[in-house]
Amino acid sequence: MAALLEEALACLARGCSILPVHAGNDRDKDPHSALLIRTGYHRPDPENPARLRASWKPLQTAPPSAETVTAWFANTQNVGMALVTGRISGRIVIDFDGDEGRAYAHSLGIRPHVLTGGGYHWHLRAPEWRVGNLVGKSTHDAPDCVDVRGDGGNAILPPTVTRKGPYLYLRDPADIDTLDDLPLTLREALRLVPPLPAPPPMTGPLPRGDDRYPSSRILDWALQKVQDGTLGGRNDTGYHLAWALYNNGYSHAEVLQVGQTYVSHVGHQHPDGRGAPYTLDEYRASMRTAYAAPRGEPWGYSSTDARPTPQTATQALEDVYTQLPPEDQARAAHLIAREWAATGRPIEDTIRYLRLIGHDAAPKTARAAYVAHERRETMPGSLDTFLRARRVRYGRST
């Protein structure tokens, strides 16, 4: 049995999906259209329905049969093999390209699986969530010499011989590593962290046909007012929050539910570090006063309208902070504190902001970040990369 066919059948046995590619000719590494069409992997040409175009998209959801693979690799002249990367094969591939890529891989201390025609391929276990394909040269903060082949991608496998040379295994292909073997900063730069789940509704489901101004936006407004102090302190702002909710037709139970979230954000301690915490009892008192006050006009913003996209990283962080797991909350807080330290922002402002978004260890985190800045320690990433790695959209670039 030819080595290419033998390895192809071994790939199937490992649970991988594969496809045939051109090798050693002017279509080097492209999907092999003739072989794909011959074995039923095709679709009509939209410009000429009588003509067929090769399609390997079905191989992204189901691997080929052993009979199909045998037909592909019975004749190995100018034929190679590629792994269909992503969840279908249970693995993604990190491509370290060229001399720069090989040197970078060595600096990370990794053990690549494949020696390519110009670099290395490192196979990692595919996570449960979708991994996109990424080109380092066109991705902010990612190394130029590193690409990612994820869902919908492919990577050449040994023993394919391309025009640049043979692909060779450097270690057992069944022995794959995990994302945890990558440094966290590189995982974030390569978008190899799980996306955030969709946020739950702030006040629970509302009656059908409800067109009230969204309580989440009223809460956002109140939190911003606490930060800039334009309505006074937390107590005064709590009153205005309750009053606005009543004006927009929210019930006592709903106003209290939003208030509980408000207190969880601002109630830990007074922003200047002095005074007693703001409590739910104080908010309840504001509710009673607001309910007895003359009603104002409802806000002119329908709950069916789209929420405005945050324009800055800090606005985006405020939106998603409570959705983050504790370790990511701590990392995000440290990153923004480091960035604000680098811009000369007073540490008191940083502590106040971290408390506002709900970070319990605000003073400790801020002090550690400012000390790290004074010591000129290397920045452990950026808030922008942290957010974009988790698919948080903000700013004009979204």
Structure described in brief:
The protein is 38% helix and 14% strand.
Task: Explain what this protein looks like in three dimensions.
The protein has helices at 3-13, 33-38, 66-72, 98-108, 184-189, 215-228, 234-247, 252-266, 280-292, 313-320, 326-342, 347-356, 362-374, 383-389, and strands at residues 18-22, 42-45, 48-54, 79-84, 91-97, 114-115, 119-125, 134-135, 146-149, 154-157, 161-162, 165-166, 168-169. It has 398 residues and is of the alpha+beta class. Among the domains are: 3-189, no CATH class; 313-389. The chain has a six-stranded antiparallel sheet. A three-stranded antiparallel sheet has the order 1-4-10. Strand 11 and strand 12 form a beta hairpin. It is elongated, with a radius of gyration of 28 Å. Residues 8-186 form the DNA primase/polymerase bifunctional N-terminal domain.
SSE diagram, text form:
Layout: H1 3-13, E1 18-22, H2 33-38, E2 42-45, E3 48-54, H3 66-72, E4 79-84, E5 91-97, H4 98-108, E6 114-115, E7 119-125, E8 134-135, E9 146-149, E10 154-157, E11 161-162, E12 165-166, E13 168-169, H5 184-189, H6 215-228, H7 234-247, H8 252-266, H9 280-292, H10 313-320, H11 326-342, H12 347-356, H13 362-374, H14 383-389
Antiparallel strand pairs: 1-4, 2-3, 4-10, 5-7, 5-9, 6-7, 6-13, 8-9, 11-12
Organism: Deinococcus indicus
Pfam families: Prim-Pol (PF09250)
InterPro entries: DNA_primase/pol_bifunc_N
